[in-house]
Amino acid sequence: xxxxxxxxxxxxxxxxxxxxxxxxxxxxxxxxxxxxxxxxxxxxxxxxxxxxxxxxxxxxxxxxxxxxxxxxxxxxxxxxxxxxxxxxxxxxxxxxxxxxxxxxxxxxxxxxxxxxxxxxxxxxxxxxxxxxxxxxxxxxxxxxxxxxxxxxxxxxxxxxxxxxxxxxxxxxxxxxxxxxxxxxxxxxxxxxxxxxxxxxxxxxxxxxxxxxxxxxxxxxxxxxxxxxxxxxxx
Length: 234
Ligand SMILES: C[S@@+](CC[C@H](N)C(=O)[O-])C[C@H]1O[C@@H](n2cnc3c(N)ncnc32)[C@H](O)[C@@H]1O
What we know:
Layout: H1 5-17, H2 25-34, E1 41-46, H3 52-60, E2 65-71, H4 74-80, E3 86-90, E4 103-109, H5 116-122, E5 123-134, H6 141-144, H7 157-167, E6 171-176, E7 179-182, H8 186-193, H9 204-216, E8 222-225, E9 227-233
Parallel strand pairs: 1-2, 1-4, 2-3, 4-5
Antiparallel strand pairs: 5-9, 6-9, 7-8
Bound molecules: S-adenosylmethionine (SAM).
S-adenosylmethionine binds at residues 3, 11, 15, 47-49, 52-53, 70-73, 76, 92-94, 109-111, 113, 196.
C-alpha cells in the first residue's frame, strides 16, 4: 500500500502549497462543483485521502449538502476521521458501497484508479462526475521529461474520456489549465514527487538526479504543470 502514514503528511503539505500556483486549479474545480449543487445534494468524493475536497465543498457550498468520501487506505481514512458532518468510509473505488442512483455528484481529485461503471451506477440520471487530474506529465513536466518511459499511470485526458464514454456517460466536458508552479525550495518539489505513485522504481540515484536538475539554475524551481478538469454527465 503506497498511501501510508508518511504519505498522509506529504499530501497535507502538497495541498497547502497548491494555493501558491500561478492559477489555483482547486478554485476552478470547486467553482464547477459548487454551481451544480442544490439543496441537500448528495456528494461522494472517491479516493478522498484526507478529505481535502469534501472540506472545500463544505466550506463553500451555498446550500446544505450531504457529504460522503471513500478511500482504500486505512491511514488516509484515519487521517480524515472526525471531519464533522462528513461520512468517510474505507472502501474501494471499484466497488462503491452505495445503492444505484444514490449520488447527485461524484468528485475525484488526483485519483487515477476507479471504475467508471461504478460511478455511472451510483449517480442519479442527471448526476455528474468531476475529475481533477494531471495529464501525461503528471503535473511536473520538466521533471517527468528526465524519466522517459518510467512514469506510473502516465495518461492523457483522452484515456479518462474514453473510460467514461465506454461506461455510458454521454456528455464529456474538458478544461485544460496549463500553469506553472514556483516551489520555494528543492525539498518541497521532492515532497510532491513522493506524495503519489510517480516514477517507477524510484531510487536514491533518481532523487539525486532531480536535486542536480533543480540546483542547476534557480529558474528550475518553476515547473510547468498539466492539470485538467473533466466533467462527465450521463
Ligand atoms: C493522490 S491521493 C489524492 C487524495 C485526495 N483526493 C487529495 O487530492 O488530496 C490518491 C488517493 O486515492 C486513494 N486510492 C487509490 N486507489 C484507490 C482505490 N482503488 N479505491 C479507493 N481509494 C483509492 C489513495 O489511498 C489516496 O488517498
